[in-house]
User: Which sequence fits this backbone?
């Protein structure tokens, strides 16, 4: 293995020009997973259109500029792409060394949310307002941190060839490291993110080859924890109401059940072809709250119909399928575990987000990866794509 | 790295990765399946729900069509009034439920605050009128008589009157041209009820919340045509109710104009003369009861004989139909529906029924001919007819010897018809009727259209009653329990009757038959039935459905649907008998006839008059006066309940109506310039290119106009009856 850039190219080859380098059979560009990249980009751009449609008429949000959110979403996508390129350039292996620092910074950031620096949006005290209209949602980045910190711990001995599977001590340590930020996020309270993190931990453990007892134990603990949290009344009323409304959406159509009802009406009225972009009554009439963020899928459902909304599912499917391939094909457990964590994250968060708009999951404030408006989420998912690309680029050439 | 395979995976990790992949894709499949279920399988349902979500309707009520008389004079139209309305929903949002605003409003409108507050409360079973029985979401009219000044005050200080509007609005008006109220014929409107909206929801003319619906008269019969279609503009609104665009708008269609066959001038004369006749007869003393005549109700019908079109129809007591406009007040409503006022809402021309008395004798004469008796054979008009020990007297117990049926009509001889009725009853088997009994008298009555609706285009017409064997049987079955309980042998008169009825009330007795033959007893007829029958004798035998509506004209005047005269039957006798009847009825106004004294000076050679008087006895009441008359073109039937004799009470009134129509003076001189309607109005009023119809002026009826000017002198010698001095 070479060291300088991690390329498996022989450095005894003749020097090549930059264009030749990029087009060579073994170049980074050629080794990137293009289906995943293009699907992610397509999701982001489709998201831009949907966000535009959802916010065009919301003058109280866009200050009279119908393109405000369109541009912001495109800008976020651009920054996300840059972050991805940076991540690929750094490489997931290089990041290994930075994981303790990342972890520390993450903990500080989410602790900052709990201080007066944090801001409450939609009942969740999960934001840091930076100023100038920018705000940061650290819990999005914490998802990456948890994946990386657990992967480093669980894979180090296995990748070193010292053991076949991580031992109990290592698993326990990794769980403690994951539990700390999760606990803080729980205090915000940002239950949706905690749920995603729990699923990430589960995915990571599964892929790491940790003993079945840990996996089953974790599932048991999750269920037990949920019961305990409810029983102890640790949930806020709005969270309980969301679950109640999920169980019975007709409960209070003007109140708690309103979101779910309107979302379902929006999607259901789309039919096969949809009303056409900008032509959805539910969307233009602003009947669905939080439509540019958590309920962005309703815009697709209403205006683009089964074909458009189904296309989003297909694109997500492509991203996840390529991610699964990457997880399978990499030679190190570290890469596998990181990929599995990202798969668990994307899959569960997408399922929860779309599922709640379709009325098969309770409402939780989670964005739809790539599509929902929101910088922190956009940056985090593109960094995750960068990690996946890095894992793919750096795997040995299978010839 | 020797123990790790090239792919870097232990079997455990490999299997787990497959598990993850399977889980991930089953989640995606679940979403796809649910998406299909919502959008494709149940899509329709959600599309409908979405529609309700964001469409608001604004309704512009259609202007109700006018009702015109035969020449285009409006009997019902609309006027623009300043209507002050209160929005209940807005008021109820206020802390004091709008009390302060309404009190302020009452001050401006010079009304009592509680009256205003009562007007906007919602009707329920416990709330007395006034109350609002329309939709609570609709502006509720507080007054439709606001002055311009009041409306301006409200509009200029709109911040002091939240939820209150003052708008010019088209309001129904019944202008009563020439004092022709035409009240019961026109009917009235009231707001649509929830049940009606629900019922008409899926029909082709659904109701709107703001609609007024015709409740009686032609307003009801032609409600659909007159109502038009309200314009509906559908606005798309967002979740805050802000208007985002107009989706669809149905332009309203104004209601069609209904031209009736009523002639406002003749109507005014008929109404005046009916009221006058009743007033006059109340001054007279009834010889039988010794009391003044009550004349509690009356009706007159003027009809075209060759078409069945109603030229005038009046019913007493009457009312001002404008009382209903803008919501009827509690006191008005109580007055219109109380026993004391004797139910002026009833149109007694079609809803009042009484025994026909002698005007029934045209039916009896026809029945006799059908039974095989010759019209011109001689029948003994004795002074009385005895039956089973009882004697049935002729009117004023006068005999005329052997006479024809025509003369029997002229003298209104009862005994001739008693005998014929009795004879036929016996031929049918008497108390033990034959299987194939002819029942000529009863059958002929039915064939003359009695006992059934005439199918006039007015709602709630009553059928009257033909007391044949079947009716006797069912009436007895319905009442025998009461009779048997009340009845007592040898008790008081009532008890004795009840006793007899209990025993054999189901039998058609000889007594019933002879009574029926002169239109007495249990038989009941309506004025419109008799008018239809007499018109049929006049026109050669066709029974027409009487009609008030003549044509429906679209608001732009382009489409005209004429309501053609429609016959529903033929008289059951041949043309010869009809000619005989006609001759007999003509002799009634000629010297010796029962109505002759009322038709002194009538130009019988120019305008041959036929008439039949009737004085029907009603148990426990004074006699009902009937007068049925016709010329070649018109028939007039008048009745006055508890009004005495036919010629006495109704004669002058009917004569005056004819005089006004033909332009006759008391001496029988015709002045066509003065004639209101010497010939039936055949043509429809002229429709202007813009769809409007000009109304000719209507001069009020002057009853003095036909008095003979003593200086002009030149009266032609009287052609019928005694001289005019006989008139009251």
Assistant:
């Amino acid at each position: 293995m070479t060291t300088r850039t991690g390329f498996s190219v022989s450095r005894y080859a003749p020097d090549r020009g930059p264009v030749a380098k990029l087009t060579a059979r073994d170049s980074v560009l050629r080794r990137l997973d293009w289906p995943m990249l293009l699907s992610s980009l397509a999701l982001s751009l489709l998201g831009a259109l949907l966000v535009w449609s959802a916010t065009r008429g919301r003058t109280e949000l866009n200050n009279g500029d119908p393109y405000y959110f369109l541009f912001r979403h495109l800008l976020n996508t651009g920054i996300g792409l840059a972050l991805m390129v940076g991540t690929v350039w750094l490489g997931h292996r290089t990041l290994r060394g930075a994981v303790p620092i990342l972890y520390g910074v993450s903990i500080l950031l989410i602790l900052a949310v709990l201080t007066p620096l944090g801001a409450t949006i939609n009942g969740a005290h999960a934001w840091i307002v930076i100023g100038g209209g920018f705000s940061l949602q650290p819990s999005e980045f914490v998802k990456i941190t948890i994946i990386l910190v657990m992967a480093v711990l669980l894979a180090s001995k296995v990748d070193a060839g010292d053991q076949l599977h991580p031992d109990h001590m290592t698993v326990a340590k990794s769980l403690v490291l994951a539990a700390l930020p999760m606990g803080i996020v729980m205090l915000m309270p940002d239950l949706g993110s905690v749920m995603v993190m729990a699923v990430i931990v589960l995915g990571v453990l599964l892929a790491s080859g940790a003993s079945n007892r840990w996996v089953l134990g974790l599932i048991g603990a999750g269920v037990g924890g949920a019961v305990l949290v409810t029983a102890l009344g640790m949930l806020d009323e709005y969270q309980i109401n969301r679950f109640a409304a999920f169980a019975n959406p007709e409960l209070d159509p003007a109140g708690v059940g309103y979101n779910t009802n309107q979302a379902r009406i929006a999607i259901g009225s789309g039919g096969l072809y949809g009303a056409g972009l900008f032509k959805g009554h539910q969307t233009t009439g602003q009947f669905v709250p939080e439509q540019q963020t958590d309920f962005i899928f309703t815009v697709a459902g209403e205006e683009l119909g089964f074909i458009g909304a189904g296309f989003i599912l297909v694109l997500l499917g492509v991203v996840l399928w390529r991610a699964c391939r990457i997880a399978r094909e990499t030679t190190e457990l570290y890469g596998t575990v990181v990929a599995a964590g990202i798969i668990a994250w994307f899959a569960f968060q997408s399922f929860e987000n779309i599922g709640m708009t379709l009325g098969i999951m309770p409402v939780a404030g989670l964005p739809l990866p790539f599509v929902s408006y929101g910088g922190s989420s956009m940056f985090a998912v593109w960094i995750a794509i960068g990690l996946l690309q890095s894992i793919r680029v750096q795997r040995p050439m299978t010839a | 790295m020797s123990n790790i395979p090239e792919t870097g995976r232990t079997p455990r990790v490999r299997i787990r990765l497959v598990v993850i992949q399977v889980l991930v894709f089953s989640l995606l499949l679940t979403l796809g399946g649910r998406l299909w279920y919502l959008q494709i399988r149940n899509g329709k349902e959600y599309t409908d729900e979405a529609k309700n979500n964001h469409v608001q309707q604004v309704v512009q009520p259609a202007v109700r069509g006018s009702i015109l008389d035969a020449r285009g004079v409006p009997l019902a139209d609309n006027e623009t009034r300043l209507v002050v309305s209160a929005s209940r929903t807005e008021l109820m949002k206020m802390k004091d439920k709008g009390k302060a605003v309404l009190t302020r409003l009452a001050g401006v409108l010079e009304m009592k605050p509680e009256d205003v507050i009562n007007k906007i409360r919602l009707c329920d079973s416990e709330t007395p009128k006034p109350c609002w029985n329309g939709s609570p979401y609709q502006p509720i009219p507080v007054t439709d008589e606001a002055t311009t000044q009041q409306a301006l005050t409200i509009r200029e200080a709109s911040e002091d009157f939240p939820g209150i509007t003052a708008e010019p609005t088209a309001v129904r008006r019944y202008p009563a041209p020439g004092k022709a109220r035409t009240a019961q014929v026109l009917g009235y409107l009231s707001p649509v009820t929830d049940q009606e909206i629900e019922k008409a929801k899926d029909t082709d003319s659904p109701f709107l919340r703001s609609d007024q619906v015709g409740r009686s008269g032609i307003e009801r019969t032609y409600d659909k045509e007159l109502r038009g279609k309200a314009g509906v503009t559908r606005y798309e609104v967002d979740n805050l109710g802000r208007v985002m665009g107009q989706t669809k708008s149905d332009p309203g269609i104004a209601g069609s104009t209904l031209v009736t066959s009523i002639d406002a001038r003749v109507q005014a004369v008929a109404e005046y003369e009916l009221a006058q006749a009743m007033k006059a007869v109340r001054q007279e003393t009834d010889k039988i009861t010794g009391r003044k005549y009550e004349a509690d109700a009356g009706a007159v019908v003027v009809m075209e004989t060759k078409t069945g079109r109603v030229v005038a129809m009046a019913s007493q007591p009457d009312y001002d139909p404008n009382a209903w406009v803008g919501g009827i007040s509690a006191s008005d409503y109580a007055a219109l529906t109380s026993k004391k006022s004797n139910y002026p809402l009833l149109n007694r021309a079609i809803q009042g029924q009484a025994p026909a008395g002698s005007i029934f004798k045209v039916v009896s004469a026809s029945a006799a001919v059908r039974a095989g008796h010759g019209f011109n054979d001689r029948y003994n008009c004795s002074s009385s007819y005895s039956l089973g020990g009882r004697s049935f007297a002729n009117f004023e117990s006068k005999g005329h010897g052997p006479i024809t049926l025509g003369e029997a009509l002229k003298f209104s001889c009862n005994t001739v018809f008693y005998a014929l009725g009795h004879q036929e009853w016996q031929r049918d088997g008497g108390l033990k009727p034959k299987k194939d009994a002819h029942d000529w008298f009863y059958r002929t009555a039915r064939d003359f259209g009695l006992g059934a609706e005439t199918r006039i285009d007015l709602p709630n017409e009553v059928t009257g009653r033909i007391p044949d064997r079947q009716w006797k049987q069912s009436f007895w079955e319905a009442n025998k329990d009461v009779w048997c309980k009340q009845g007592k042998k040898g008790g008081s008169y009532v008890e004795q009757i009840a006793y007899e009825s209990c025993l054999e009330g189901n039998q058609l007795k000889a007594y019933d038959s002879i009574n029926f033959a002169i239109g007495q007893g249990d038989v009941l007829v309506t004025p419109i039935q008799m008018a239809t029958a007499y018109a049929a004798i006049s026109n050669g035998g066709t029974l027409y459905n009487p009609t008030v509506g003549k044509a429906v004209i679209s608001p732009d005047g382009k489409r005209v649907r004429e309501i053609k005269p429609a016959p529903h039957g033929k008289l059951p006798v041949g043309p010869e008998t009809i000619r005989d009847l006609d001759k007999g009825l003509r002799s009634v106004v000629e010297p010796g006839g029962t109505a002759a004294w009322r038709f002194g000076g009538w130009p019988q050679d120019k305008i041959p008059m036929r008439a039949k008087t009737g004085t029907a006895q009603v148990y426990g009441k004074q006699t009902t006066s009937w007068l049925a008359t016709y010329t070649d073109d018109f028939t007039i039937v008048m009745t006055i309940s508890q009004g005495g004799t036919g010629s006495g009470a109704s004669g002058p009134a009917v004569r005056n109506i004819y005089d006004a129509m033909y332009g006759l003076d008391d001496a029988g001189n015709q002045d066509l310039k003065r004639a209101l309607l010497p010939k039936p109005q055949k043509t429809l009023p002229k429709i202007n290119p813009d769809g409007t119809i000009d109304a000719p002026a209507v001069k009020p009826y002057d009853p003095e106009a036909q008095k003979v000017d003593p200086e002009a002198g030149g009266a032609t010698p009287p052609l019928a009856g005694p001289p005019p001095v006989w008139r009251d």
Notes: The longest strand of chain A covers residues 124-131. The mean pLDDT of chain A is 85. Strands of chain A lie at 118-121, 124-131, 134-136.
